[in-house]
């Protein structure tokens, strides 16, 4: 008689389980808005009880925040550059990575950060990501300790870059090299004021 062998379950560490749950949330975020991601769906995909998810995330909003933060980290990875490359090369790579990321995830990005009613937590995560992009840009510009006006101007430039990229790609434009050049030239004009 053949014996049926059952797969052995491996016990995950708390951090591994958190990463798994966030990963499931990220995958779901690519196909649906954050408010349509249910705890039940995430738990089912993870093969755990719904209540166990709340062992790792005290509330549903805490889970959502971590998923959106992870999405922000993905954007930052897409704009990661070689720190030893010359400043202009780093700037171009940052902008190209940003445009490529927003082009791939445009509808999800717009749905998350432009939809009303998401709450202050979405804005806070967006601000964290914008701050990191601003710091990365200032570093590539060789401005380790910029004056306040320059820092504010570069941060505002990222708001402009976001709006222009969303509109550009939303109109079906595929000439991304032209967008890269436009963004770099406006940044150059801004910091050379």
N- to C-terminal separation? 83 Å
Estimate the helix proportion, in percent. over 70%
- The topology string of helices and strands comes to HHHHHHHHH
Percent in strands: under 5%
- Structural class comes to mainly alpha
Describe the global form.
elongated
Sheet of most strands = none
Helix run count: 9
Radius of gyration, in Å, reads 20 Å
Poorly predicted runs: none
Q: How much is the average pLDDT?
A: 89
How many strands?
Answer: 0
Explain what this protein looks like in three dimensions.
Helices cover 70% and strands 0% of the residues. It is mostly helical. α1 crosses α4 and α5 packs antiparallel against α7. The longest helix is centred in the last third of the chain and has 23 residues. The N and C termini lie far apart (83 Å). The mean pLDDT is 89.
Short description, anyone?
With 193 residues, the protein is mostly helical. 70% of the residues lie in helices and 0% in strands.
Structural features:
mainly alpha; elongated; single chain
Summarize the helices and strands and which ones pair or pack:
Blueprint: H1 14-29, H2 39-46, H3 50-56, H4 60-78, H5 87-104, H6 106-113, H7 120-140, H8 148-170, H9 176-191
Helix pairs in contact: 1-2, 1-4, 2-3, 4-7, 5-7, 5-9, 7-8, 8-9
């Amino acid at each position: 008689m053949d014996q049926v062998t059952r797969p052995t379950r491996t016990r995950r560490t708390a951090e591994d389980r958190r990463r798994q749950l966030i990963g499931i949330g990220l995958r779901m975020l690519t196909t649906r808005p954050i408010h349509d991601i249910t705890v039940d769906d995430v738990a089912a995909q993870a093969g755990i009880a719904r209540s166990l998810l709340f062992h790792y995330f005290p509330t549903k909003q805490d889970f959502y925040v971590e998923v959106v933060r992870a999405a922000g980290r993905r954007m930052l990875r897409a704009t990661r550059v070689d720190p030893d490359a010359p400043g202009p090369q780093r700037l171009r790579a940052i902008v190209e990575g940003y445009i490529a990321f927003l082009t791939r995830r445009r509808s999800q990005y717009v749905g998350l950060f432009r939809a009303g009613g998401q709450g202050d937590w979405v804005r806070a995560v967006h601000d964290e990501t914008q701050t990191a992009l601003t710091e990365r840009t200032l570093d590539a510009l060789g401005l380790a300790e910029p004056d306040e006006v320059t820092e504010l101007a570069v941060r505002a430039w990222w708001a402009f870059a976001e709006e222009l990229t969303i509109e550009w790609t939303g109109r079906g434009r595929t000439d991304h090299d032209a967008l890269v050049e436009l963004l770099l030239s406006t940044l150059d004009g801004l910091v050379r004021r």
